[in-house]
Amino acid sequence: MAEQTTKRSRRLINGCFPKPPFWLTSVVLFGACGSILLVARLSNARTSTSELPRVHFIQDMDNQVKVKVQHETEVFADGRGERPRIPGTVAWGEVTGNDMLIHGYTRTWNAGKKQWDVTFANDFPVKVDEALLKQGEKKFNTYCMPCHGFDGQGNGPINQRAQELQANAAVSSGMSWVQPSNLTDEVRQGRPNGHIFNTITNGIRNMAGYGPQIPDAHDRWAIVAYVRALQLSHTGFKAPQANSAPVAPATQPMAMK
Question: E-assigned strands of 51-112?
Fold first, then answer.
C-alpha cells in the first residue's frame, strides 16, 4: 500500500496529472471560441454599415420625446408640430430693407475702382429720446463697460486687471495687452454714427463684434446714442461731417466681405 502511494506521488511530481473531466474541457473550449467570435464580431461592426440603429448603451439626450417635422402634437391648439414663421422674422444674413438701420451705412459699387464706396450714417435712423438713452446706458454697462469703463475712457475693470498682471513680472512674460479706446476722445468724436454702429456690430482691430450678442439693431443704435451722450458730458460733442470712403479691411462690414 505504501509503495502504491509513493508511485502515485512520483507521477504527480513528474507532471502526469489525471485527465480533466469532459465538462471542464468543454467549458474551456466554448469559452475560448466565444471570446474569439466576440472579438471578431466587434471588429466587423466597427468597419461595416447597417440600416439598423446602433447599440446605444448610454442614452444621454439622444432619445427623448420630441416633435418631428410635419408631425402632430397636442401641445398646440391647432395640433401641428411644425410652427408657422413668426411675422417679421428673417433668416440670418438675409436682412433686407433699411441699410442705414441694419448696417449703419449705404454702399454703391464703384466699377472704376472695383470696390464698394461706403457712406456711413451721420444721423440716427431711430428716434433719439430719453427711453433710447436709458436703453443705451443699460446695454453699454452690460457689454461695453467691462473694457471701456462706465465713463467710456478705456479704463474698465478688464483693463485694470490687465494692468495689474503686466506689472507682475512673474505672470506678464509673453503677455500683450492693448488698452481699450477712449470713446470720448477727438478720434471717436470725429467718426460718424454709422461708423460707431458698424464697430459695435462687426468689431475693429482687437475688439470683437457684438452683433450676435446684441442682435436688435435698435439696441446697438441706443449704445451709439449713449456714447454720444458720454462724449457730450466730457468734452462737448460736435457732429462729424458726412463722408464717403472705402472701408479699411480692419473695419470692413461683414456684408462687404
Answer: 105-110
Domain ranges of the chain: 99-256
Cell reading at 250: 480692419
pLDDT, averaged per 10 consecutive residues of the chain (257 residues), comes to: 52 63 87 90 82 78 79 87 80 68 82 83 87 92 90 87 78 74 86 90 87 89 92 68 43 39
The fold of 99-256 is Cytochrome Bc1 Complex; Chain D, domain 2 (1.10.760)
Considering only CA atoms, which of 206, 238, 201, 239 is closest in space to residue 220? 201
Q: What is the DSSP letter of 141?
A: I
With contact defined as beta carbons under 8 Å apart, do 221 and 98 qualify?
no
Contacts 24+ apart (CB under 8 A), 249-252: 250/204, 250/205, 251/195, 251/198, 251/199, 251/202, 251/204, 252/202
3-state secondary structure at position 207? strand
CB atoms within 10 A of CB 19: 6
